[in-house]
Amino acid sequence: METKENGSVETKNSVENGQLTDPAHWAVADVVNYFKATGFEEQANAFQDQEIDGKSLLLMTRNDVLTGLSIKLGPALKIYEYHVKPLQTQHLKSNVS
């Protein structure tokens, strides 16, 4: 794992051919493992408790992450900005191409 300048962590979890697999195909366990691998072990349990799979993850808004998961504000902001939002963007770009 490598920490990037913006505070996000690069992970080799759910990687296929050097790229993350499409999160739309992730099961709840894949989402939980992704967040555990990126340094959010404690917060990953919230995704398990709320049964957030890949499709649900891609539909989450900032407000969902900040209030719906019952996790502390600091980690919630990082999870949304450095992980959920980029995964959503990546998914949209790969489906438009």
UniProtKB/TrEMBL annotation:
Residue intervals of the SAM domain: 26-74
Residue ranges with Polar residues bias: 8-20
Signal peptide: none
CDD domains: SAM_Atherin-like (cd09583)
Region span, Disordered: 1-21
Annotated SUPFAM superfamilies: SAM/Pointed domain
InterPro entries with a match to the protein in the record: PcG_chromatin_remod_factors (IPR050548), SAM (IPR001660), SAM/pointed_sf (IPR013761)
Record's protein name: Sterile alpha motif domain-containing 13
Native source organism of the sequence: Danio rerio
